[in-house]
Fold this protein.
Amino acid sequence: VSIASAAVASAVLRPGTAAFGAERARRLVPVDVAPESVTRTTVGLRPYRDAGFVLRAASLGGKTVVHNYGHGGGGMTLSWGCAILASELALQTEKRRAAVLGSGVIGLTTARVLQDRGFDVTIYARDVPPETTSNKSGAQWSPTSVFSSASATDAFRAQYRRAAELSYARYQTLLGKAYGVRWIENYDCRDEPRSSFLSNAETTPLHDLYPQIQLYGPGEHPFPTRYATRFLTMLIEPNRYLRRLQEDYLERGGRVVVRELHTAAEISALDEPLIANCTGLGAGTLFGDTVLEPVRGQLSVLAPQPAVDYLTFTQRGYMFPRSDGIVLGGTFEHGATSLVPDQATIARIVGVHRAFFSAMRAG
Ligand SMILES: Cc1cc2nc3c(=O)[nH]c(=O)nc-3n(C[C@H](O)[C@H](O)[C@H](O)COP(=O)(O)OP(=O)(O)OC[C@H]3O[C@@H](n4cnc5c(N)ncnc54)[C@H](O)[C@@H]3O)c2cc1C
C-alpha cells in the first residue's frame, strides 16, 4: 500500500491506519562493513548557498554571462534541468558561440545542452573529471541540501521545482549501464513513524518525483529501527557518468581548454561572446559571490557488494551501493575547506554503519 505524500509529511502515522504499510519489506541483504574493506576515502566541497543556486543572465564587458552555479548537495541531480534553463537564457541572445567555464557536472551538461541547441562550445576549466567535486559525489538523484528554507525566495523555489522536474525527466532517458544510472529503493530508517528525508522544505513539494513511498512499521522491515520509509530514486555512478558526458561532448565537436581563470577581466577577454559560468565553488572569487560557501563531505568506499541493491538513510549517515563500491557518507561541514580525509570521521562513519548493518536481520 503506497501512502499519500501528505501522510508522509505529517508528523505521526499510527499503526492500523490506512496510511500505514500493510506489506512487509522484501528480502534485503545486509552490507558487510569491515574497516579493512575500505578501498578509498574521498573529500569534496559542495558549492552551497543558503538562498539556493544562481541561474540568471548578466552582462560583463559587452558579453552575456549566464550564471549556473551554487547547487550545494544536489548538483548531480539538478544538472540537466539547470542546463536546460541556462540554455533558454542563452537562446535569448543572438550569440551562438559559447565559452563554458567549468567541467564538473554543471559545466558538462550545460555544454551538452548548448550543443543540442546549435551552439559552438569551448569548455575552459582548471580541473576535468575525475578531478572535479562532481566525481566526489554520492550520487543519489535527490535535489537536497540545496537551500535553506529561511533564505529561499518564492521565485527561487519555482525555478528549483522546474529544474528538478526537467532533470527527473532527462535522467530517465539515461537509465542503463552506458551512463551508469539506475532505479533503486532508498530506506529512510528511524524510530519515529515518519521520513524526515521526505518531509522537509526541499522534498515535501517534490513527492511526485519520489515514487512508491511506503512506510513500514515494527516487524515489517529488517532494519534495527522501529520504522523505515521506502521510496524509489535513481542512483548515478559519478565516474562512469561524467566520463560518458565528456565523450558525448567531444564527439559533437566540443573543445576543452585546461586553464585556470583568475579575474573577470580575463573572462571578458575570452574569444566567445557568450559565457556560461559553471565554476561551482570557484564562482565565489571569480564573480565576487560572498555568500557562496563550501560544505565539506567525506565518503568512505568499501569493496563492491553486488547483492546489496538498496540505499539506506539514517540520522547518522547514508549508504549507496555503487558498482565501484559501497559508499558510506553523510557528513556536512559548513565552511570547512580541507581536502584531506579525516581519520576520526572515517572511523565514525564506518563504525556507525557497521553497528547498523550488524543489527539488521538477514533474510
Ligand atoms: C560527499 C558529497 C556527496 C554528494 N552527493 C550528492 C548526491 O547524492 N546527489 C547530488 O545530486 N549531488 C551530490 N553532491 C553535490 C554535487 O557533487 C555538487 O552539487 C556538484 O558536483 C556541483 O557541480 P559543479 O559542476 O558546479 O562543480 P564542480 O564539480 O566542482 O566543477 C566546477 C568546475 O569549475 C572549474 N573551476 C572552478 N574555478 C575555476 C577557475 N578559477 N578557473 C577555471 N576553472 C574553474 C573546476 O575546475 C571544475 O571543472 C555531493 C557532493 C559531495 C561532496
User: Anything to note?
Assistant: The two ends are 22 Å apart (CA to CA). Helices lie at 5-9, 75-91, 105-116, 154-171, 238-251, 264-268, 283-287, 343-358.
